[in-house]
């Protein structure tokens, strides 16, 4: 699916799937590093910023996935 939001093209076929909350929403990262949600059964795209993406991934994914996507983090 392709959608234009705020003069930017978001394409689910060329973006990387980062997280799937099946069957409801999928979190993508574009080749240029932009983030967006999409729904496989409804034609919508919701751009989000990197901080929002970090929050989603840290909440719903294993620590290893967070590090894979964003790199190593400082230990507390």
Percent strand equals: 35-45%
> What spatial form do the alpha-carbon principal axes imply?
globular
The average pLDDT is: 93
Low-confidence blocks of residues: none
Largest sheet: 4 strands, antiparallel
Overall domain count: 1
How much is the radius of gyration in Å?
13 Å
> Which structural class do you get from the secondary structure elements?
alpha+beta
Through-space gap between termini: 40 Å
Q: Helical region count?
A: 2
β-strand number: 6
Order of strands in the sheet with the most strands? 3-4-5-6
What does this structure look like?
This protein is globular. It has a four-stranded antiparallel β-sheet with strand order 3-4-5-6. The protein is an alpha+beta fold and 76 residues long. It has one domain (2-70). It has two helices and six strands, in the order ββββββαα. Helix content is 25%, strand content 41%. The relative contact order is 0.18.
């Amino acid at each position: 699916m392709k959608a234009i939001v705020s003069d930017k093209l978001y394409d689910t076929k060329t973006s990387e799937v980062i997280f799937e909350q099946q069957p409801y929403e999928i979190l993508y990262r574009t080749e240029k590093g932009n983030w967006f949600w999409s729904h496989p059964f409804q034609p919508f795209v919701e751009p989000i910023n990197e901080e929002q993406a970090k929050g989603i991934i840290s909440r719903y994914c294993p620590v290893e996935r967070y590090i894979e996507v964003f790199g190593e983090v400082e230990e507390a």
